[in-house]
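Whiteboard transcription, Tuesday session. T.W. wrote the structure tokens on the left side:
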């Protein structure tokens, strides 16, 4: 975006964050249930889950609420007392919250919190992606109050890939979501609305799920604006490279601390694998379906993209038809995006976010 400021006038700018909270019904404790032999869940200990909920909200107050207009949550526990803790803060920070519980006996939900002074919620759609694994997606039609621009925003949590069959199921779930969003756009006569899909996909960016989205003209915020690793102590996160105080400091911050990468870690799973499975994909309004040199009619790529093979971020931004992605990030900002942060104890995921800018050529 910074390279195009002289050519484009920004119409609007907002921040998006997605985060899997790790519902207390899924968080395993080290204590064994003597009757079943299984590890107890945090939901069985109100003192523990309340403490973690309050720590999560303090983290939100520090790094999320002050500058996030759209917040997508997965594994949002539906327990009334848990909900009350969060709802008080959502209301205090000006969010309207929409929640869709998973089907069957599951006690968690996906949720979208939207700043009410920025967006109006014009319509909602509940999508059942897979009854077998109780997977759902929540879709909102948002209208930006100042510009009048329309957005179709989806939040989802795809199945965990226990097997090759699960990976096929993930692709089917995403295909069902994208089809539902297109039908939602047609039925509400908002064909040109900018689309956004966020959530815990349970796969990395090289997956067939992400390839499917690219084939439809969506772009990954992390591929357009790769996350920036934090600088060494004493340097600002948004300080341009040319502003380094000396050639020596510029070399060290550029070569090491300021390295951008497609590789990021947002989750340490129960197998102790460190993965980047949380995503934000965007398709621009009135876009002709470009993804680099690919059109919507082109087949999906047969091999996943690499940092070397991808077009530059500027090329992707032009192809994205007036939607610019800036400052993709993995929270907390103070720690590298390429490793799991052992001191981040509020979840087994880290939030990921991006700044979206809609602009028109001068």
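and on the right, the sequence the group agreed on:
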């Amino acid at each position: 975006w910074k390279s195009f400021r002289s050519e484009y006038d920004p119409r609007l700018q907002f921040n998006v964050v997605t985060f899997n909270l790790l519902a207390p019904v899924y968080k395993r404790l080290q204590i064994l249930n003597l009757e079943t032999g299984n590890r107890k869940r945090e939901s069985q200990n109100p003192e523990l889950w309340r403490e973690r909920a309050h720590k999560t909200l303090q983290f939100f107050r520090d790094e999320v609420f002050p500058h996030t207009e759209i917040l997508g949550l997965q594994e949002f526990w539906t327990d009334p007392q848990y909900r009350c803790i969060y709802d008080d803060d959502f209301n205090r920070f000006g969010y309207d919250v929409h929640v869709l519980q998973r089907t069957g006996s599951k006690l968690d939900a996906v949720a979208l919190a939207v700043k009410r002074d920025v967006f109006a919620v014009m319509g909602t759609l509940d999508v059942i992606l897979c009854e077998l694994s109780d997977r759902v997606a929540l879709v909102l039609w948002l209208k930006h109050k100042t510009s009048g621009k329309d957005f179709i925003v989806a939040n989802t949590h795809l199945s965990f890939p226990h097997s090759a069959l699960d990976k096929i199921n993930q692709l089917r779930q995403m295909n069902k979501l994208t089809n539902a969003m297109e039908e939602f756009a047609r039925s509400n006569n908002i064909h040109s609305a900018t689309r956004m899909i966020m959530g815990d996909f349970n796969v990395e960016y090289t997956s067939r799920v992400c390839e499917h989205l690219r084939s439809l003209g969506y772009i990954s915020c992390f591929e357009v604006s790769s996350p920036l690793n934090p600088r060494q102590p004493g340097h600002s996160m948004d300080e341009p490279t040319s502003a380094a105080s000396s050639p020596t400091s510029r070399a060290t911050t550029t070569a090491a601390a300021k390295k951008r990468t497609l590789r990021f870690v947002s989750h340490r799973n129960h197998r102790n694998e460190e993965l980047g499975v949380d995503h934000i994909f965007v398709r621009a309004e009135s876009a002709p379906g470009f993804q680099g040199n690919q059109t919507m009619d082109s087949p999906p790529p047969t091999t996943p993209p690499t940092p070397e093979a991808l077009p530059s971020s500027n090329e992707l931004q032009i192809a994205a038809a007036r939607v610019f992605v800036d400052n993709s990030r993995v929270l907390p900002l103070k720690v590298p995006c390429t490793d799991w942060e052992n001191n981040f104890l509020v979840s087994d995921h880290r939030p990921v976010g991006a700044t979206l800018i809609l602009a028109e050529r001068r």
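Someone added at the bottom: The mean pLDDT is 83.
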